[in-house]
Hints:
Helices cover 23% and strands 27% of the residues. By secondary structure, the chain is of the alpha/beta class. The chain has 2 domains: 27 residues; 121 residues, Immunoglobulin-like (Sandwich), CATH 2.60.40. The strands form 2 sheets. The protein has a 5-stranded mixed sheet with strand order 2-8-7-4-5, covered by helices on one side. Strands 1-3-6 form a 3-stranded mixed sheet, with no helix packed on it. The longest helix has 22 residues. The relative contact order is 0.21. The chain binds copper (II) ion. The site of copper (II) ion has 5 residues, from loops.
Amino acid sequence: MKISARAMVVSVMLLGALALAACGGGASSGAANGALEVGTDGENLAFNNVALTAKAGDKVSITFKNNSTAQSHNFILVKGGDDVATAVDEAGAEAGDAAGYMPADMTNIIAHSALLAPGASETVEFTAPAAGTYTYVCTYPGHFGGGMKGVLTVN
Length: 155
Ligand SMILES: [Cu+2]
C-alpha cells in the first residue's frame, strides 16, 4: 500500500513536470522551466542571446558559456537598466582583474558568474525579481562599452 501510494505521488509529479515543460514556451533548449542558456558570440564582444524571459518569483537558472577561444568574459545581471549596468561596469573595472571585474558593492547585482576563462561555463541560479526589464552585461573592461549586453524581461 505504501509503495503504490508513493508510485501515485511520483506519477502526479511527473505529470506536473510535463505540464510545466509544455507551458515553458520561451525556453529554446527544452530544459526544465526557468532554465535558460546564454553564451558569448564567438570572438565578438557580444552575447549570443540578448533577450531572455522569466516569470516573476520563478526560480531561474542561467547557464553562461564562454565560447571564445581567447577572451575571458563574465555574466552579470543587474537590478535595473543600462544606467545601473553602467555603474556596475565602472565599479567592476575599479575592482580589477584580481576580483574578476566583480564590483565590491553587490547591491545592484541580481546574479552573476565568475570571470570565465575561454571555453568555461557556469550556471547561476536566482529567483526572478518583480516584473520589469533587467540588463545583463560582461564587466571585462571595454566589453559592455563594446555592446556586450542583453535584457532579461520578467513578466
Ligand atoms: Cu566580456
